Amino acid sequence: MTTAFLLFFGRGGESAVERQLDDIKIAIGSSVLRRARDAGFAPRIAVTTDNAASHSFAKAGAEVAPPTTEPFHLGKEVHALAQSRRLERICSVGAGAGALFTAADLEKLRTELETSEALVLSNNYYSADLVAFTPASALGVIDLPATDNPLPRRLHQQGGLSSRQLERSAATLLDVDTPADAAVLKRHPACPDDLRALDTWDRELGDRIDALMRLVTTPERELVVAGRVGAPVWSYLESQTACRVRMLAEERGMQAAGRDVSHEARTALGFLYQEVGPRAFFERMSELGDGMLFDTRVLFAHMGWRVAAPDRFASDLFRATDIAEEPLAAFTAAAATWPHPLLMGGQALVSGVLWTLVDAAWAGHPEE
Known about the structure:
Layout: E1 4-8, H1 16-38, E2 44-47, H2 51-59, E3 63-65, H3 74-85, E4 90-94, H4 103-114, E5 119-122, E6 130-134, H5 151-157, E7 162-165, H6 170-173, H7 179-185, H8 193-196, H9 202-216, E8 222-227, H10 231-240, E9 244-249, H11 268-276, H12 278-288, E10 291-295, H13 296-303, H14 309-316, H15 326-336, E11 342-345, H16 352-364
Parallel strand pairs: 1-2, 1-4, 2-3, 5-7, 8-9, 8-10, 10-11
Antiparallel strand pairs: 4-6, 5-6
């Protein structure tokens, strides 16, 4: 009885930041493949066309296979591999996810799958980065999704598999998509060795992260968390931080519902920003807390800013002069001068990244 481990990697854009993020995802993917080997998964197959990724994944003990779909369609790729390799049990993951999973974690997941007849496990039922399931024949009766996010729902609702969501933790929630995600991961004691040697924008983000780690372990300070925050993260912060937390949770499911592209997304902070402009906006934020984690994509959608990845990442790195679009450049310049520690990014920042930051803070700052 064996369970296959499938890892998928595709290059992002051609900007320097995107290429650097890809190098980090390759390092994460390679480390996860080695732990999957130690956990007893076989075969281990990495799907990519990238030469650097292929070399690294093969060195980690994986077979490398090119994708067969153009444009890439994850559901069809997984189904084709299941049919050609006669796979019955599959764990599928993207190269940016799973960085904090241990071999023991993966072995436990594999064992549960191999002792079940009809089951889908996922790190997030509504927006998955890791999906493990059996039997693979269920893929033949569902509408195959182009991405991994809706796969557990369809296997459950259309394929008839029982569903269980993995326990929420930094390991299950963290998926590296932005510079801040990688920079926080590097500070966690369980960060893969492959990643520790890489540049994760410490010059721009290191001091900010260190200050936020001190903040969450300090009573009477207040952290502002704004964006697509889920209830499990909120509950975790309530019990695991020494500081007060001010939560502004808005637009959960924004991308899945298409509210970002339909211009329907709305946020209270967006209305404030429209009224007072960038500099006064951050002055008001100073009255709300001593530091902030900001899922800026909700604000961008509210404002109707169609921001390409290079500009999004430049904003996350506080590089206002690298941004051509004046509204975003003005926002980023104001953020850069805010006198409190601030991290900006996407939804992962106020989910797995925040969880990872708090874990890392207590690991380096134990309670006396």
